Amino acid sequence: MRYFYLASDDQLSSIYTNGVNADTHGNIRIIALQEDFLMDKYIFDVYAYEILGLDIYCLFHILPLGFQGEILDSDIDHIFAGAFKILKQETIERKYIAPYQSLTSYEGMGLVEGVFPVENKDKFTPEYQQKILEYLNALGK
After folding, report:
1. In whole angstroms, what is the distance from residue 31 CA to residue 8 CA?
2. Nearest to 69 by CA among 91, 89, 95, 97
3. Which end of the chain is less enclosed by CB atoms within 10 A, N or C?
């Protein structure tokens, strides 16, 4: 399993400095995907746009060594809810996070490493999302 943390791009420097901090309920919302899942960016874009209401976001890979708390299913009602998790923990230290490395280059777009635009919103249809969910399920998610 691979784990990720997604936030608004204005939180980038704070995360680089302080790590990831829990919300007022002691939860850190993370995304968990199988090692062999190839549609990461689509899931991240859907989460950013449909759940957080963002058009640009920062994304971090989280090392499981940084987990001390329990990982629970999310309370988010969404077709991809199985990939959205809650980590019951106050903080993930900076040393356990790294900017997500995309295969796509955004050089020249004014974006920094670990910051991404939401793309392909035209594919955020229920039919396309169902195909992606079937792919996730075929991998044993």
Report:
1. 15
2. 89
3. N
d(CA 120, CA 113): 20
Q: Which positions ≥6 away from 108 have C-beta within 8 Å?
A: none
Tokens standing for residue 109: 């777009």
The per-residue pLDDT for range 85-94, each reduced to its tens digit, is 999 999 999 9
- How confident is the model over 38-51, as pLDDT tens digits? 778 889 999 999 99
Dist CA 18 CA 94 (whole Å): 6
Pick from 10, 15, 1, 7: which is nearest to 96 by CA?
15
Supply the DSSP symbol for 112.
P
Dist CA 78 CA 27 (whole Å): 18
Question: Which among 116, 95, 89, 70 is positioned nearest to 18, based on CA atoms?
Answer: 95
Domains along the chain with CATH numbers: 2-138 (3.20.170)
- Local structure of residue 114 (DSSP, 8 states): T
Of the candidates 4, 65, 70, 53, the residue with the CA atom closest to the CA atom of residue 31: 4
Tell me 139's DSSP state. Answer: T
Calculate ∠ Cα 46-47-50, nearest 5°. Answer: 70
